[in-house]
Amino acid sequence: MTAGSVDDADLAVRWGPRPYPQLLRGPRHRWWRPLVGAAVAVAGVGVLIALIGVAYAVAEVVLGRPLTDEELLASPVAFLANNLVLAALIPLSWAAVRLGHGIGPRWVVSVMGRLRWRWLFVSGLLPAVVVLVTVGGLGLLSAAAGEEPFGSGDQRRTGAVVALLVVVVLTTPLQAAGEEYFFRGWMSQAIGSWFRRPGVGAVVAALVSATAFAYAHGDQDPWLYADRFLFGLTASYLAWRTGGLETGIAFHAVNNIVVFVPTVLAGGLSESLGTTSASPLLVVVDAVGFAVIALGAARMARRRGLVRLSVPPRVESSLGAVNGPV
Hints:
three-stranded antiparallel β-sheet; 13 helices; globular; hydrolase; membrane
């Protein structure tokens, strides 16, 4: 079938322009495809977890002793390994989409089938400002109350601190991208493909992926869970309103870097990574910040005429990505 034929045009009209969470609901969609993709994803995550265990076991053999909590959580090598493993969620998401849905992995990142680099950097400016204000404000409040806002206790030489800062700045964007590709990318699109109505698919996908994202962070009290759940909902909203993962990646990366850099300098990285609780104030402040970022990014996307709708893959030859109301 040649591009632009009547049959292709009919397919394009039938499937219509769709938002990002429903890009996998096209001519190749079957009810069982998300389950195959999930099997690929679960198997891949199992392999990644096993690799982490092997790496720790090898390290203990080389050192001739068990690793300390600091070495497990916050040494430069451990932090690098953790970020690289999470970055591996990107090719894992590609594999889940290709093997499970029979769709090219490029459609995981945006309705354009590619990463929109200019938008990635432009849309990261607002989150950077908001996160700096909220983290700085909470830090000042904690300091005024006589607390250590960024923790303490890690004993490191200057070289180790510098190494950690380099690892944080260079690899945290990859870690953030990996989590966005997995939770807001493959997972949201797979869930969204089950629903005929785009709005219902987007909402259910956002709720399920935000829940999975929060639980994936391990043991936590209800307030910390709520904070991470709200973060996940915000990132899903950004993907829906902007047509891709770029803004969520920028938001996620900026948030983590702004939090990690001062904790490394203060000697509180081990404490920060091991925390299992949060205050109600943190959740309220973050919720306000998340809302500002979500609404601001949606407004920026609308003013720039950002493409946020596309016909599903396999019929894109007829219409490609199309503009739609933001």
